[in-house]
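Marked as duplicate of an earlier ticket. Keeping the data here for the record.
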Amino acid sequence: MALPKDNLSDLRAFIAVARAGSFTKAAAGLGVSQSAISYTVRKLEERLGLRLLSRTTRSLATTEAGQRLIDKLGPMFEDIEAELSSLTALRATPAGKVRINSVEYASQAILWPALRGVMAEYPDIDLEIIDDYRLTDIVATRFDAGVRLGHQVDQDMIALRIGPDSRQAIVASPGYLAVHGVPVVPQDLLAHDAVMLRLPSSGGLYPWSFMKDGQELIVRPKGRGIFNTTAMMQQAALDGLGLASLPDGLVAGLIAEGRLVQVLLDWSPLRPGFHLYYPSRRQPSPAFAIVLQALRQFRGV
């Protein structure tokens, strides 16, 4: 029996929920209310006479029938959306929205400096940059691309390097170190006050990792100041609250000025720089292609 034509939107809603693992996240990605998307999926199940999602108070998973729909129809919907996006190439002026999931420092140091010229030159291109320290599933949450350090990018993604290799710099104000002393090895941090980053996903504090001569250590200092932005962490370190772990590019100028002092440099490993990544099977829209080109030119890659 053929399904009504409006089932195309119902199927799209179901696929979004299944991939996000949450009605709330899927609703946000589609720009509808949680109750509306829940109703849509429920009516689809009623029309099919099959349960597609297994729901509990704490989890959401696809049933066998639901997973079959995802496996068969998910790639088809991606192809349809990619083709619709590519039709904007027929316009005289590229248009559309580009959504990027990033982290705060990469957005400030790389994305906006590279893309502000795009916004001025192409008035019909809209840009949405969402900073989030979680390893977000960009496909499920309907982002065009994500930005993370090179070692955090899945192998099935296309990755474009947009930043140099970097280190996490352990820094403190000269005044703090004068009173509390300078840590020599990572274990010394346990006796120090620290400025920590709160992770939004788990609610825990971001651990500090170190490596020297093949030895890796994870240290969780005492967080006297806990924040969810690097700007606040940097300011707290400048004000002498304690040691902070921040991207070296962010604090390089303050170190050169003597306002912050870097410690444990020999324990700070060099890590792959920031990469922009996106699904390998998705055809870039004209707007996204312009964004890619701007990032290539900005970093000379």
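See parent ticket for discussion. The radius of gyration is 23 Å.
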